[in-house]
Amino acid sequence: MADTNLNDAFVEFERVQKSYDGENLVVKDLNLAVPRGEFLTMLGPSGSGKTTCLMMLAGFETATHGDIRLDGVSINNIPPHKRGIGMVFQNYALFPHMTIAENLSFPLEVRKIGKDEREKKVKRALDMVEMGSFGGRRPAQLSGGQQQRVALARALVFEPELVLMDEPLGALDKQLREKMQFEITHLAHNLGITTVYVTHDQTEALTMSDRVAVFDDGRIQQIDPPDTLYEEPQNSFVAQFIGENNTLHGVIKEIKGDHAVVQLDGGDLIDCKPVNVSEVGARTQVSIRPERVEFDKKRLQEGVHTLKAEVLEFVYMGDIFRTRLRVAGNDDFIVKTRNAPDQRRLVPGEQLEIGWLPQDCRALDA
Amino acid sequence: MTKTATNEPVLAADGTPLKRSLARALRVQKMRALALIAPLLIFVMISFIIPIGDMLFRSVENKIVENTLPYTVDELSRWDGTGTELPPEPVYRDMYFDLFLAAELKRHTRLGSRLNYEASGMSSLFRQAGRKLDDPGKDAVKLLKSIDPVWGERDTYYTLFNAAAGDAVNQDLLAAQQSRIRWLADETPTGEMAFAPSQNVSDLLPLAARVYTSSAVITGMIENKDVAKSKPMESLYLALLQDVTRPGFQDDLAAYDGPQKDALTALANAGLSAPNYSAIFADIDENWADIETWRVIQTHSGEFTNGYFLNAIDMQKTPDGPAVQPENKRVLIQLFIRTLIMSLTIMGSCILLGYPIAWILSNVPTRQANMLMILVLLPFWTSLLVRTSAWKVMLQQQGVINDVLVWVGLVADDARLVMINNQFGTIVAMTHILLPFMILPMYSVMQTINPSYLRAAKSLGATNWTAFWRVYFPQSIPGIGAGSILVFILSIGYYITPEIVGGTKGVFISNRIAYHISSSLNWGLAAALGTILLAVVLGLYWCYDKIVGIDNVKLG
Question: Does the pLDDT of residue A4 top 50, yes or no?
Answer without folding.
Answer: no
